[in-house]
Amino acid sequence: METIKNHLLKKTKILENYNISLPKLEARLLMAKVLNKDLNWTYSNSEKIISKKQVANYENLIIQKIKKVPTAYLLGNKEFYSMNFKVNKNTLIPRPETEIIVDEIKKNFDIKSRISILDLGTGTGCILLSILGEFKNGFGIGIDKFSKTLKIARENGKKNNLSKKSKFIKLDWTKKEFSKKILDKNKKFFNNKKFDLVVSNPPYLLKKEINYLIKEVGYEPKDALYDNKDGLVFYKIFIPKINSLLKKNGYFYSEINPKSSKKIEEICRKYNHVNFEFIKDLSGKKRFVLIKN
Ligand SMILES: C[S@@+](CC[C@H](N)C(=O)[O-])C[C@H]1O[C@@H](n2cnc3c(N)ncnc32)[C@H](O)[C@@H]1O
After folding, report:
1. CA separation for the pair 130, 153 (Å, rounded)
2. Distance (Å, rounded) from C-alpha 77 to C-alpha 71?
3. Is the pTM here over 0.85, yes or no?
4. N or C terminus: which one in the chain shows less Cβ crowding within 10 Å?
5. Rounded Cα distance, 202 and 175, in Å
6. Is the shortest distance between the CB of 172 and ligand 1 below 6 Å?
7. From CA 46, how far away is CA 81, in angstroms rounded?
8. What DSSP character marks residue 198?
9. d(C-alpha 221, C-alpha 224), whole Å
10. Cβ–ligand 1 contact at 149 (below 6 Å)
């Protein structure tokens, strides 16, 4: 029978030996998960003894961490824009750089406005729901190709008290009549025609990047990362369609692969969207394209 403190010391050492980054923090986060407590509790109760079952559960999580399973999947949730989102192996883990989209949107719309939003490839629903968390009068639709992913997005809508203002629908943007279907849904659910805002963080990795992913990313859904072609499928479909989905003066925001910015610029010019700009991430890379309709 050992104390929480002793378990933490031992497991930190093991994680360190397997080159897991931030081993001390990881060991503590997983301990807190097993005990169903927050981190603070583990500090103030470090002399407590934990049950055999808890030890077994803890060891199981440590084994998964050694195999580089992302911590968000082990904990079952991830923070995004100060909100908490359920995640599992069917959803991409929300990334901190994606939060920039929400900040940028706040620059272009009055926070009190009744904006209608379409989130393409919603995953956990983190982009749509965090915008709705800021724009109290907003409403919107998140679409994804997978039912299992949408199930999590809906749960996140409920968990964050936003299920009345958000609908999550199964649709594949490579299929025929996508635009018509989504506009029909918008009419049905919100009695609204086109959208004020279309947002996305689509799959955009290049084939050669897929071969060099860090092990953790290999646990995330392939279809969330890669479009099986040139990383431009999404942009080639939607940039030509912006007029049919967006109201006049509406905005299209999408995350991009910085390596594809030149090609995305060419697509914008080809379809006469001269009103576009790239927004950089914190490392100075072109990470988002913003197109005004
Ligand atoms: C990079 S993830 C983004 C998830 C979430 N928006 C985020 O930022 O964390 C891309 C999402 O697009 C979805 N997706 C990929 N191809 C799709 C398609 N053809 N039609 C609809 N959704 C698709 C994936 O299932 C995945 O959830």
Report:
1. 12
2. 9
3. yes
4. N
5. 16
6. yes
7. 31
8. E
9. 5
10. yes
Q: Evaluate whether 164 touches 175 at the Cβ level (below 8 Å).
A: no
Whole-number CA gyration radius for the chain: 21
H or E stretch including 15?
A: helix 4-17
Query: pLDDT 10s digit of each residue in the chain, 293 long?
Result: 799 999 999 999 999 999 999 999 999 999 999 999 999 999 999 999 999 999 999 999 999 999 999 999 999 999 999 999 999 999 999 999 999 999 999 999 999 999 999 999 999 999 999 999 999 999 999 999 999 999 999 999 999 999 999 999 999 999 999 999 999 999 999 999 999 999 999 999 999 999 899 999 999 999 999 999 999 999 999 999 999 999 999 999 999 999 999 999 999 999 999 899 999 999 999 999 999 98
Spatial separation of the C-alpha atoms in residues 100 and 91, rounded to whole Å: 20
SS3 for 214? coil
CA atoms within 13 A on the CB side of 35: 23
Q: Is residue 80 lining ligand 1, measured as CB closer than 6 Å? A: no
Q: How far apart are CA 76 and CA 80, in angstroms?
A: 13
Ligand 1 mutation pick, 102, 117, 122, max ligand atoms within 8 A of CB = 122
Which ligand 1 atom lies nearest to the CA of residue 174? 19
d(CA 22, CA 56): 22
pLDDT at 1: 78
Q: In angstroms, rounded to a whole number, what is the distance separating the alpha carbons of residues 129 and 223?
A: 21
Beta bridge partners of 290: 253, 277
Place of tokens 């197109």: 291
CA 271 – CA 289 distance, rounded (Å): 15
